[in-house]
Amino acid sequence: MDHSTLEHFRAVYLTAEDLRVAASILFNAYHDDPFFKDALYTGDKFLYEQKLRAAIREELHELWQQEQVLIGWFEEERLIGVACVITQQVPLGDGRYWHWRLKMLLGTGWQSTQKLMKKENSIVEHLPGNRCGILQFIALAPTEQGKGNGSQLLRAVLGWCDDQPDLEGLAVFVSVPMHQHLFFSAGFEALAHLQIGNVDGELLFYRKEPHE
């Protein structure tokens, strides 16, 4: 992607008006994600898709309410990519707020909600400190993949991370091996191998360079 092409793209914080499109991008990107299929699928595809939409919608809403970082990758005025970061300033896993639990329970069911919290517990247990961010979602619209947008969006996220004095770095759980290259090429390192439910994956970590 040359410089003249990049001029048409920009990374900016999402607004409330962007959340519906963001949810659609995330739904399509995570439709076949091994973790979500393990956590939400019970043999009925229609019910699975309902649960996935609910899980993404409620998580986006919670991130927005807690003023967490939602970054959009735009081609001119069109939202084509989304990245969502949650920090340990927000209770995670078993510490999730009751209203999040209730909404997730209503949208996905008890067992699915428990699995979502267990995933966060596993990630938090392996983080190198209590000042880390977790990349909850990163996704592109299906038609925009394979064009270099993913690495540009990730670069924008890491640029944000580098500017945060209270963060040590950024973690991400990757359950699809072919996706690991994107993160390794951006400076992430393997932190731990995790098995969450029936899904194996790697917890990767981007450690910020210390400021002078």
UniProtKB/TrEMBL annotation:
Positions of the N-acetyltransferase domain? 58-176
Sorted alphabetically, which InterPro entries does this protein's record hold?
Acyl_CoA_acyltransferase, GNAT_dom
Superkingdom field: Bacteria
Name the SUPFAM superfamilies for this protein: Acyl-CoA N-acyltransferases (Nat) (SSF55729)
| UniProt name for this protein | GNAT family N-acetyltransferase
